[in-house]
Write a structure and sequence with these properties.
10 helices, single chain, alpha/beta, 10 strands, 5-stranded parallel β-sheet, about 290 residues
Length: about 290
């Protein structure tokens, strides 16, 4: 069972194995039509498309962030349709060094499906190695023993905005912001209406987790970098956030690779936080 990463060579060797299920998560936060169009042009054979906007975001109210968690019923319907079942190995990837695929990885883990991993190096590494691509859309594939997917949500894996508000008055939680330094400092904000960051949050840009070829750094390197950032804090005290709870999952995955399990996700992230003008906003460099 793979629970964090699968190499490109491992995936190619299993492309025709019905016990493996491949999900394409290509997306662009600034162009919501990009992912489906990119998938239609080319994708890894047998991969099924998952939409970050249609499948991975619930109903938006204007105050709950850009990618709120979908209902359990909608997620169960999605993953049943795709063929997820107990014990079936799921592999997810995207075109952007897995900053979108990480959210699908986290969601399946949240629902209790542990055998889910990210394609190390994502689509870019796969293409650079000359591995197969297709534009053919596969028919739904059934697992060896077809079952209806039933999630078992683990709410210990995420926190709600009230917990973040409470953490401002204590040292119980440590936020880590996965966005760019410019967005964190409040110098630029291309998506959300307010610039800045949640007070007390530390900065760990998600791309700091990867090497030049898009693959993740070694477990030892990641462990050293996160330990330097967090000091002696236990991973269970760490909450990851970004703009809307998507790229934050890249940092969550990196900590898992590093052997630092137990961190949580703030799904609403900055887009939820800044929707309420009464919540404080910080700007400038990391404290």
């Amino acid at each position: 069972m793979h629970t964090t990463l699968v190499s490109t060579s491992e995936l190619e060797a299993q492309l025709h194995d019905p016990a493996w299920l491949l999900l394409d998560c290509q997306h662009d936060l600034l162009d919501h039509a990009f992912g489906r169009a990119a998938y239609a042009r080319e994708h890894i054979p047998h991969a099924h498309f998952v939409s970050m906007e249609d499948d991975m975001a619930g109903k938006k109210t204007g105050s709950n962030g850009r990618h709120p968690l979908p209902t359990l019923e909608s997620l169960e319907s999605l993953f049943s349709r795709l063929g997820v079942s107990s014990g079936r190995q799921v592999v997810v990837y995207d075109q952007a060094q897995n900053n979108y695929a990480g959210r699908v990885w986290w969601t399946l883990r949240y629902l209790g499906h542990r055998s889910v991993a990210v394609l190390d190096g994502a689509l870019g590494k796969w293409k650079s190695e000359g591995r197969p691509l297709t534009s053919e859309v596969p028919a739904p594939t059934l697992p060896p023993t077809p079952t209806e997917f039933r999630g078992q949500p683990n709410d210990a894996l995420h926190v709600v905005v009230e917990s973040i508000v409470a953490s401002l008055r204590s040292t119980d939680l440590q936020l880590i912001d996965a966005r760019t330094a410019e967005r964190y400092r409040g110098e630029a904000e291309p998506i959300d209406p307010v610039a800045g960051h949640i007070p007390g949050a530390l900065l760990r840009f998600w791309k700091d987790n990867i090497q030049a070829d898009g693959a993740f750094k070694s477990p030892d390197a990641l462990r050293a970098e996160f330990t330097k950032l967090l000091g002696d804090r236990d991973p269970s005290q760490v909450v990851h956030q970004c703009g809307s709870g998507v790229t934050a999952c890249h940092n969550l995955l990196a900590m898992e690779i590093a052997g630092l399990a137990g961190a949580k996700l703030y799904i609403g992230s900055w887009s939820e936080w800044c929707a309420d003008p009464k919540r404080p906003v910080a700007t400038g460099a990391t404290p």
